[in-house]
Design goal:
By secondary structure, the protein is of the alpha/beta class. The protein has ten helices and nine strands. It folds into two domains: 149 residues, Alpha/beta knot (3-Layer(aba) Sandwich); 57 residues, Orthogonal Bundle (Trp Operon Repressor, Chain A). The structure holds adenine. The site of adenine has 11 residues, from strand 5.
Length: 225
């Protein structure tokens, strides 16, 4: 799979994309990620990418020309062109899985007060928000989307089964995990986990998931099949 990211701050992604699972996935050619500076498509001598809003108001708006030129240069037939914005559709694990099956994504990170609406109307297929808060720019949001979808690409996670037991896979939060020592600062690991009865362990874990979900994310329980 190929992902092109368009941002004014390519440096924000450098370390992030080279470390850990993503770094390894890229080395193993499971995932090709190219980070581009939107400014490279500006044509004036100051490499301008923004301008004052028509109608007045505070802040600047990203201009059509550099972004549309960049997307048109990078796009391929069938690719998905996604704009990261707080007024987009909320990102979910289902969306991450769906995107992981695409051949080619273009992720556009916005900045300032937003981008000219005509960009959204002409070269964007889909708009995604990573949560109800506003970041200073969409680059971290693009990073979040890449990280979440990479986990669904076969071979990226060491152990495939960790995908099926974790939070959100069945609209349940994860169960509590423990490792050695069996007693730490007077706190013992639940007895059932030490006894090796896998049926009992499964039952306990599921009960813990239900309890935790009811406590912290009751909204998820309503989505249970
Ligand atoms: N850009 C700024 N805030 C954002 C958010 N919450 N999600 C996606 N892109 C953003």
């Amino acid at each position: 799979m190929r992902v092109d990211v368009l941002t004014l701050f390519p440096g924000m992604l450098e370390g992030f994309l080279s470390e850990s699972m993503l770094g390894r996935a890229r080395e193993a050619k499971l995932l090709e990620i190219n980070v581009h500076n939107t400014r490279d498509w500006a044509t004036d001598k100051h490499r301008t990418t923004d301008d004052r809003p028509f109608g007045g108001g505070a802040g600047m708006v990203m201009k059509c020309e550099p972004i549309c030129a960049a997307i048109e240069a990078l796009q391929s037939p069938g690719c998905r062109r996604i704009y990261l914005t707080p007024d987009g559709v909320p990102f979910t694990t289902a969306k991450a899985e769906e995107l992981s099956k695409q051949q080619h994504l273009i992720l556009l990170s916005g900045h300032y007060e937003g981008i000219d609406q005509r960009i959204r109307d002409t070269v964007i297929d889909e708009e995604i928000s990573i949560g109800d808060y506003v970041l200073t720019n969409g680059t971290l949001a693009a990073a979040v989307v890449i990280d979440a979808l990479a986990r669904f690409i076969p071979g990226v996670l060491g152990e495939e089964k960790s995908l099926t037991s974790e939070s959100f896979t069945r609209n349940l939060l994860d169960f509590p995990n423990y490792t050695r020592p069996a007693v730490y600062r007077g706190l013992s690991v639940p007895e059932v986990l030490l006894q090796g009865n896998h049926g009992e362990i499964e039952k306990w874990r599921h009960a813990q998931q239900l309890e935790k979900t009811a406590k912290f994310r009751p909204d998820l329980l309503k989505k249970q099949p």
